[in-house]
Amino acid sequence: MEEKIIKKKRIFSGIQPSGELTLGSYMGAIKNWVALQDEYECLYCIVDMHAITVRQDPALLRRRSVAQLAQYIACGLDPQKNIMFIQSHVPQHAELGWVLGCYTQFGELSRMTQFKAKSQQHADNITSGLFTYPVLMAADILLYQADLVPVGEDQRQHVELCRDIAQRFNGVYSDTFTVPESFIPKMGARVMSLGNPENKMSKSDPDGCVFLMDKPEDIMRKFKRAVTDCEMAVKYDKVNKAGISNLLTIYCAATGKTLEEAEAEFEGQGYGVFKPAVGEAVVELMRPIREESERIMKDKAYLESVYKEGAAHAQYLANKTLSKVYRKIGFVAR
Ligand code: AQP
Question: Does 29 contact ligand 1 (Cβ within 6 A)?
Fold first, then answer.
């Protein structure tokens, strides 16, 4: 009987080393990366080229890029199973980014909500890199012919644009790129700030943000101070009880419980009991990750071997797509 080789589907995702990894990036993205690593062929990237769309401290960026790799591994990503690398080590990202920029409309980029938000946040430094960020992100994904992109809700619009660019290019030059789908978790797709539950939890808002490497006492303090409302009921109601709804989501994502189970558990108990309970659940979730990261960070040679091997493997895959693209658009072979 003929043996069928079933090719695994491919995943690409990345996080900017523009700050410390947060509970938001863990629940929105990394938790899914870990869950998907057996079923898919995965490329997980540290997107340092995206990070420089806003000003970075060079020494800190270098340190954070390596620390982020250690944290990926500590979260449960296995370098033997996944291709883990630093974006700037694979120059094909920039090369394809340039090409795709010539297939993206100015109007499309102007509509990106992240650009609007970040250009307000960094009004003194609105660079063209910030504007074309989604084109580079499309290149990241399309370079590897990824089928799936596990991200938080905030990145949905960028993945949609990536799909549009891929379809447009395929329409002009025949099938070249796999058109990817976003993969957004049911619980934790949009973790909100603890200080302002109307806003997304972001690494650039340290007050409302829990970092993966925070110490237990800091995590507890942040949750005890979390903004709630003047009622008493632990009930999920995103419109009227944004703070409590966010804490319930975090609690469920951390413990694996459903919203109904969590509401029942805290029925009749005030926020004075609920808030520390959420804090404790997060402390227990983060503890092994923090301890393992600290251990891995001491082994610089190991980390270097992981990102070097990852880059070599990624370059091999990236070259296949890039040479196809160059041929199709009419560049002379090197
Ligand atoms: N609060 C969040 N809830 C759910 N998912 C989130 N992600 C980020 N914040 C949340 C997801 O994690 C990945 C990390 O994306 P990134 O760091 O590359 O970019 P970002 O979304 O711009 O991160 P921040 O923390 O919001 O950075 P700043 O403060 O610089 O703006 C993505 O998959 C994202 O969806």
Answer: yes
Task: Establish if 203 belongs to a structural domain.
Answer: no
Q: How far is the CA of 269 from the centre of ligand 1 (A)?
A: 32
Which active-site residues does the annotation give? Answer: 118, 200, 203
Same domain, 177 and 52: yes
Instruction: Specify if 199 maps to a domain.
Output: no
Structural domains in the chain (count): 2
Cβ(28) – ligand 1 distance below 6 Å: yes
Residue 204 pLDDT: 84
Regarding whether 78 and 106 lie in a shared domain, the answer is: yes
Q: Could you tell me if 108 and 220 lie in one domain? A: no
Q: Is the alpha carbon torsion for 149, 155, 160, 166 positive or negative? A: negative
**Domain identity same for 233 and 309:** no
Confidence (pLDDT) at 122: 86
Q: Which domain holds residue 284?
A: 214-295
Residue located via tokens 């972001």: 202
Q: Which two tokens stand for residue 26?
A: 């863990």
In total, the chain counts a number of residues equal to: 334
Q: Are residues 249 and 148 in the same domain?
A: no
pLDDT given at position 5 = 64
Average pLDDT across each block of 10 residues of the chain; the chain has 334 residues. List them in order: 71 96 95 95 98 96 98 97 98 98 97 94 92 98 97 95 98 98 89 94 89 96 95 93 97 96 94 97 97 97 98 98 98 93
Confidence at residue 309, expressed as pLDDT on a 0 to 100 scale: 98
Of 12, 27, 160, 202, the one to substitute when testing ligand 1's pocket (max ligand atoms within 8 A of C-beta) is: 202
User: In this structure, are 223 and 255 located in the same domain?
Assistant: yes
Measured from the CB, is residue 191 less than 6 Å from ligand 1?
yes
Q: What's the pTM?
A: 0.94
Pair (110, 157) in one structural domain: yes
Q: Confirm whether 70 is domain-assigned.
A: yes
